[in-house]
Amino acid sequence: MTESLSTTLFIHGRRCNVVVSQELLKKISADIIRMSQNEPLGVNGCSIEVRLERGGVIDHLCELRYDTDSECMFRIIVSLKEDEKQWYGINNLVTQIHSMLCCRHGLLHFWVYIGRAYKLEKIKLYAMHPLPR
After folding, report:
1. Which SS3 state, helix, strand or coil, does residue 73 take?
2. Closest CA to 18 of 113, 118, 119, 117
3. What are the residues whose beta carbons fall under 8 Å from the beta carbon of 29, sequence distance 6 or more?
4. What is the pLDDT of residues 81-98, one digit of tens each?
5. Which of 111, 112, 84, 86 is nearest to 97 (CA)?
6. From CA 94, how far away is CA 116, in angstroms rounded?
7. Which helix (H) or strand (E) holds 122?
8. Residue 124, φ and ψ in degrees, nearest 5
């Protein structure tokens, strides 16, 4: 099994642990750096929005900026998708155990495992040539 990272977020008012493989994070990071190379400020001028699709619903997870002092010149939208099949056995077991513990304390908590597929969309927030007057 590959190494993974987990972070806790709130989705629709429920506490959620999002689990993603380190390999996927490295691939996404490399793609973002590559997509930033020809931009005026490079990765410093990039805003990254992370979205999650689960069950046909798309949720905004977070927005990241590498350099908040630089002007935002472009946005990259990272669309991730829940992997229900690959992690199903682990997810089911962890969810059952965690639910038993959390229900005693009245917490609503669930786990989301991110699949290997992702999509990056780049949106420029500037014009390369000034508009004619």
Report:
1. coil
2. 113
3. none
4. 988 775 555 555 655 555
5. 111
6. 20
7. strand 109-124
8. -80, 135
Q: What are phi and psi of 87, to 5 degrees?
A: -100, 5
How does 19-40 read in b/e, with b if 16+ C-beta sit within 10 Å? bbbeebeeebeeebeebbeebe
pTM (predicted TM-score): 0.76
* DSSP string covering 104-115: TTT--EEEEEEE
3-class DSSP assignment, residue 25:
helix
What is the distance between the alpha carbons of residues 95 and 99, in angstroms, rounded to a whole number? 6
| Token reading at 29 | 């990071």
Residue 8 near residue 112 (C-beta atoms within 8 A): no
